[in-house]
Amino acid sequence: MVDVGARLKFLKVVFGYGGLTNDGLNACFRCPVCKHSDKLKLAIHLRDGMWQCWVCGVRGRSIEGLLKRYA
Hints:
Layout: H1 4-15, E1 18-20, E2 26-29, E3 42-45, E4 51-53, E5 59-60, H2 63-70
């Protein structure tokens, strides 16, 4: 089972400032691809690791892939 709190803490170290969505299932950060300065549009599902930027459209199925390519 995935420890959601530990995963969120790790993602904040890697991507900087971020926050949880109202339902607590997704964490939002600045996208490392389009680099919007004030918009947290990169959504990462904390349980299964799927992610998507709602501005530039980049997406993937695992956090590991995101970290390898952009972090």
